[in-house]
Amino acid sequence: MDQPSGRSFMQVLCEKYSPENFPYRRGPGMGVHVPATPQGSPMKDRLNLPSVLVLNSCGITCAGDENEIAAFCAHVSELDLSDNKLEDWHEVSKIVSNVPHLEFLNLSSNPLSLSVLERRCAGSFAGVRKLVLNNSKASWETVHTILQELPDLEELFLCLNDYETVSCSPVCCQSLKLLHITDNNLQDWTEIRKLGIMFPSLDTLILANNNLTTIEESEDSLARLFPNLRSINLHKSAGLHCWEDIDKLNSFPKLEEVKLLGIPLLQSYTTEERRKLLIARLPSIVKLNGSIVADGEREDSERFFIRYYMEFPEEEVPFRYHELVTKYGKLEPLAVVDLRPQSSVKVEIHFQDKVEEMSIRLDQTVAEFKKHLKTVVQLSTSNMLLFYLDQEAPFGPEEMKYSSRALHSYGIRDGDKIYVEPRIK
Hints:
Oligomer: single chain
Keywords: Coiled coil, Cytoplasm, Cytoskeleton, Leucine-rich repeat, Phosphoprotein, Repeat
Number of strands: 20
Largest sheet: 11 strands, mixed
Distance between the termini: 87 Å
CATH class of the largest domain: Alpha Beta
InterPro entries: Leu-rich_rpt, LRR_dom_sf, TBCEL_Ubl, Ubiquitin-like_dom, Ubiquitin-like_domsf
Protein name: Leucine-rich repeat-containing protein 51
Domain Ubiquitin-like: 346-420
Structural class: alpha/beta
Main location: cytoplasm
């Protein structure tokens, strides 16, 4: 159903959080009651607002009465205005400037690219620590203005904005710790390096779904660009096609968490091979694709890595192989053990004074085996008793009395004996 257009923030607030739609509930964290004052609105004593306001997809186009916003929202710390119709930064500024304790603001999927963000408007965002501008098509000029006016910004979300390039800001943003810039079209590493220049304190960089190509950067340069990077997400970076790109991640001095799913380079390996090869190549990481790397898993992976490359031509062996050989020594290839059950064995058939060596199939049942013995012992199957003697059995022969039981379940091996006796009536 289409949302009505032309509604103000204040109008939607009153509708959603009226006592009829949002009844007041006592108890910590359940809501905040704002009492009336002589200068206030007669609605003021009837609204009970939580500190987290969710007003997404409500058709909001403007702020409404700023005095009303200030009266009701003095305690609000988080505000979700995503999927509305806000296209004027001045209207957003009117809302935010009257929410003095706001720390989280979500403006995703608002057509804000239609207006220019002036610095005096951006100044009203000064206290915001987490800003979400996904699918807003915000220009880099807008982002730069925000960065200059938000001294405490820690987390910035710029997904789905159709970015093909990055425009460097004239000033660095020292406060930003997390940048979520997925689902754009940032293919060339020269664009990613600009993010390192703009955000030198970056702790977490989420670049999934960007078709990133090879990491063309020296190790020293990577260390300088991202000196504090602890976590990087490169999911579905279709252009990463060689192991050297993965090795480059070791250049980030504080990196300890990596996400690398959907990389073409890794598709030809099994899930187990993929994980072990990555762990072995990235000695500093403690978490891979969301899973903790245990100490035992790391050693297993590094030993696997040595054995994996030990038969490769010298020119194809990665440098990491030599590092690990120094650590563990040259390992012997693992013995190939065939764990498939034996299909047939040779046993001795004892009947009266006769002994005959016979090769028997282990997948047959006792009843089927008796049919094969009929011609050897000249007894009918109903008049035949079988006893199996394991060479190492301490308790003597075991009667094979269950007709439907498979021979392999007895653990019969080459050289074992089977005794046949007539049933005594």
